[in-house]
Amino acid sequence: MIKRIVIALMLPFILSTVVWAQEGPSGAPWEQLSPNEQRLLQPFREKWADIPADRQERLRKGARRWATLNPDQRQRMRERFKRWKNLPPEKRQRIRKRFERFRQLSPEKRRALREKRHWFKNLPPQRRHELRKRWKNLKPEQRRHFKRRFGFDRPHRSLPRARHPRPYRAR
User: Fold this and answer.
1) Model pLDDT, residue 27
2) What is the C-alpha to C-alpha distance for residues 142 and 134, in angstroms, rounded to an integer?
3) I need a labelling partner for 44 at 20 to 30 A (CA). Which of 38, 90, 145, 154 fits?
4) Which of the two residues, 146 and 127, has the higher pLDDT score?
5) What is the rounded CA–CA span in Å between residue 53 and residue 115?
6) Any idea what the Cα angle at residue 115 is, between residues 113 and 116, rounded to 5°?
7) What pLDDT sits at residue 2?
8) Distance between CA atoms of 48 and 52, rounded to whole angstroms?
9) Quick check: helix, strand or coil at residue 22?
10) Could you give the CA distance from residue 30 to residue 15 in angstroms, rounded to a whole number?
11) How far apart are alpha carbons 167 and 87 in whole angstroms?
């Protein structure tokens, strides 16, 4: 049971960490962790001192969050982690890279993308399907044009407001 908890707890950190390449001073010593944190983070005990401080803090934050979840939420996290483990390694790598790119965006751009995702997820399923199909049928140049038009090719500028089509003008 504890192993499942730890596995489910690790999912957000797997997604948020591409490499452990950062060097620097270590965070809290293992002995300073609460008994509950030590129990949940047991798989990391042997290498705890080698884990960068920011990663240690994310792991500790995840352990604290896990303690606040109700049984249904914990079960959903276990299921999400199981789906994650069943993904092919290439797909997991693509997801990690995409998430890392997202984390490097400005706060405004992240907020705008979250709003667009929320808008998309609230569309009726048929409309979402139609939009996905249209996107998949676009040629690479058309996709590049779309990304340029809506600011997805500019790494440090916020997204422009959605443009409404110009009214038809009779000539």
Assistant:
1) 81
2) 11
3) 90
4) 127
5) 31
6) 65
7) 56
8) 9
9) coil
10) 24
11) 46
Q: What is the mean pLDDT of residues 69-96?
A: 93
Residue of higher predicted confidence among 11 and 112: 112
Question: Which two structure tokens, joined as six digits, stand for 60?
Answer: 């500790």
Angle at 159 between CA 154 and CA 161, to 5 degrees: 145
Q: Which residue is associated with the tokens 């030590």? A: 38
Please write the tens of the pLDDT for every residue from 42-59. 999 999 999 999 899 999
pTM for this predicted structure: 0.53
Q: Which parts of the chain fold into alpha helices (H)? A: 2-16, 35-40, 53-68, 71-86, 89-103, 107-121, 125-137, 140-149
What are the C-alpha distances in Å from 169 to residues 162, 165, 166?
21, 12, 9
